[in-house]
Write a structure and sequence with these properties.
Number of strands: 15
Mean pLDDT: 85
Largest sheet: 5 strands, antiparallel
Radius of gyration: 23 Å
Helix content: 10-25%
Number of helices: 5
Order of helices and strands: HHEEHEEEEEEEEEHEEEEH
Distance between the termini: 10 Å
Shape: elongated
Strand content: 25-35%
Structural class: alpha+beta
Length: 294
Amino acid sequence: MSYDDSEALAAFVAATGVEFTLLSDVDSATIRRYDVFNTIVQPDDVPFYGIPFPGFFLIDEDGFIVDKLFNRHLANRDGAEQIIDRFFGRADPRDAEPLRAGIDDDRIEITAFVRGGGGVLRVGPMRQLVLRFELPDGLHIYDEPVPSGMVATSVEIEAPDGVRFEPMMAPPTRRLELPGLADPLQVWDGSVDLVVPFFANSGLVPLLKAGETSIAMTISVRYQACDDERCFLPRTHTLEVAVPIGFGVMPGFDGLEGRGATVVEMDSTSHMRRLLQRTADPDGGPGGDGHPEG
């Protein structure tokens, strides 16, 4: 759903061939009722006033909203996979997504894969790099803090300019109390997913223009595994993932060709003209008495 009029949405569907339903909420009435009206954009920010915060509602088979995921900025929005993963509590790699796996001498399996957009990185939308540890029964690894002489789990990632990484997200730890230590340790065992959100900015555009179809992402994971009696030597495990890259899709305005986007062949100028007229009209802009159109 957007505040674009139904004529603009019909033109976008005709130009792109998308098969899902687009809804028009020209006065942002429904956007407000669902409490996702973008309060960062101010009334004098024409023509953007009236947009929602970008995001998703997850609806079950009976039509009930069971989860939602919304962000502050459209440029770094999440994909549908992220909200589905969050609802089920675990990411599920698909055949089409980049994936690398390895097993160390301690029988710990580490898998790295990319979630979101079918694994294709484009300028703007968020993706997730998932690092999955499969720990044999009886072994655990550590989160910060650890005593001197022990090694907590850490991740370092190298990627080309234009790729930006957000802080890593980790599951809750288990408290482990050991004799001689005043404070309990924080450990993970079993199957553990460490998730690093990332996105591409305009720095990726030169690679796209040069005809590159993928980038190399090198992930170095340092950790120390222990059982109830002894600790193994710290290890650094390195995985390299080839991540496909591609152009995004944007309406056909002058200058967008240089922003990592494939321009949609539609009459965007007429749409923008109508939008400017509508949002500049206090009786017809966001907050009026109109109703959403199909």
